[in-house]
């Protein structure tokens, strides 16, 4: 299935899928009378979309309009399922998930945008807490009235920081590979 892994809210999205076969090797194609429909769902109530393919060779061509994707929410994870139907038969050909990026177009005064991943946001927060503890601006434990709060120990913060740094590095490597810049961890040696 060829639905993209990332889309931008408010963009028109087009893709094509090739014909397939069922478990017995029988063709599932537009030429054989099959209809292929993509169903899109999100983790919000009453939020979804569908796209029915039109014949393109033996396969199908799909489109989501800009008006449809405008209703998708940035930073959400969307889920799709491709279902082929013909004369009472139903076959799920694939499923997956995709990310939705904010559309940066604006009119008037632009609002702030924070496109950091959740791991990067968490890493920045942990590092700010560590800096505050080092400079003496953070208290390990305090009481207000009958409530008592205890902050994380420095060792726990350092462990969490290392874990988040690793996750951010993986995200950065995946982004570089997705942008065609190669894997930054590959090491090439010439003799």
Q: What labels describe this entry?
A:
191 residues; alpha+beta; 5-stranded mixed beta sheet; 34% strand
Assign an overall shape. Answer: elongated
- What is the residue-mean pLDDT, rounded to a whole number? 87
The beta-strand count equals 12
| Fraction of helical residues | 10-25%
CATH fourth-tier homologous superfamily of the largest domain: Immunoglobulins
In a nutshell, what does this entry contain?
The chain is α+β, with helices and mostly antiparallel strands and 191 residues long. It has helices spanning 66-70, 118-134, 154-178; strands at 6-8, 13-17, 20-21, 27-28, 35-41, 48-52, 54-56, 59-64, 77-86, 89-101, 141-144, 147-150. It has a five-stranded mixed sheet with strand order 1-10-9-5-6, with no helix packed on it. A three-stranded antiparallel sheet has the order 2-8-7.
Account of the 3D structure:
With 191 residues, the protein is α+β, with helices and mostly antiparallel strands. The protein has two domains: 6-101, Immunoglobulins (Immunoglobulin-like), CATH 2.60.40; 118-178, no CATH class. It contains three helices and twelve strands; from the N terminus they run ββββββββαββαββα. The chain has helices at 66-70, 118-134, 154-178, and strands at residues 6-8, 13-17, 20-21, 27-28, 35-41, 48-52, 54-56, 59-64, 77-86, 89-101, 141-144, 147-150. A five-stranded mixed β-sheet has the order 1-10-9-5-6, with no helix packed on it. Strands 2-8-7 form a three-stranded antiparallel β-sheet. Strand 5 (35-41) and strand 6 (48-52) form a beta hairpin. The longest helix has 25 residues, at 154-178. It is elongated. The two termini are 42 Å apart. 12% of the residues are buried. The mean pLDDT is 87.
């Amino acid at each position: 299935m060829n639905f993209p892994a990332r889309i931008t809210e408010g963009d028109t999205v087009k893709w094509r899928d090739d014909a397939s076969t069922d478990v017995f090797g029988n063709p599932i194609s537009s030429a054989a009378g099959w209809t292929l429909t993509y169903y899109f769902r999100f983790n919000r109530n009453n939020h979804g979309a569908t796209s029915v393919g039109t014949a393109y060779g033996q396969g199908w061509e799909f489109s989501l309009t800009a008006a449809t994707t405008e209703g998708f929410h940035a930073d959400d994870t969307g889920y799709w399922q491709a279902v082929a139907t013909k004369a009472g038969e139903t076959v799920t050909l694939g499923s997956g998930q995709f990310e939705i990026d904010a559309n940066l177009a604006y009119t008037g005064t632009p609002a702030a945008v924070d496109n950091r991943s959740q791991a990067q946001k968490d890493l920045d927060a942990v590092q700010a807490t560590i800096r505050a503890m080092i400079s003496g601006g953070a208290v390990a434990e305090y009481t207000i009235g009958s409530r008592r709060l205890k902050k994380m120990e420095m060792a726990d913060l350092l462990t969490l920081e290392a874990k988040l740094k690793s996750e951010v590095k993986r995200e950065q490597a995946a982004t570089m590979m997705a942008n065609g810049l190669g894997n930054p961890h590959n090491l090439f040696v010439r003799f």
